[in-house]
Automatic annotation (TrEMBL):
UniProt-recorded name of the protein: Uncharacterized protein
Amino acid sequence: MFDMKKAYISQAVYQAAYDIDTRIKYKQELADDAFGSFIQSQSHQTNLPDDFDPAQPRLLFQNSHKQLLISQTLCQLNLGFEPGHKSLREQLEIVFTNAREIHKRIQKFRKDTNLNESALIITLSLPSAESREALGEYLFSHSIKFPKFGEIASTSVKVGYLHPSNNFLNVEADVYEKRGGMVEGGQTIDLMSLPIVEQGVALKVDVNSRPKAQVEGYKNSGPDEIISIITQYFPEELLKLLNIGDEL
């Protein structure tokens, strides 16, 4: 059902949180100094008012492969890969390298401000030629112990763990599809009318230090511990956990 040679990291996200800073958008020059050479672009203002949702980005950096969002409460780096772009192991090393580098730059940007929790979230896409219905049935039969009351219309699995290291480890599995095609300029887009260009099962692993950050005196030492935890499970143990490994 799945060909591991086609598996790829469709998205990786690294976050580092801090206490709310309502003046963050006025620190654009500091942001450009800290992140400009890394993202290879200048920042842009999102022009949101100071009293709007603090989690929404105030500053944005973007290039073809990286996006950095800066809100009043955190910095978030988004990375993406295309199918067939480097091996899965190479992609994973790129994610880890970028997580370490962006954390250093976030520390530079925030100067003496202590960072709160960090998180690294990686989505592994497993493309398949099977139908959405067959993929949902497969995921249901391999990972859920529910009675089958009828035809499976959709399946999604999410499990959260408190890791022995006192970090949260969250695992998700879902059926995904990508749609695409040519759209004429100015035309209203009905996404569901576009052809499906890829579908399969997406496995997401999210490791974050939120439990540690609740302990008095917590100091954020960077992403190395989170990376070590992900390395324990990604991808082999993650696939076994969801009973997909035997099909690869």
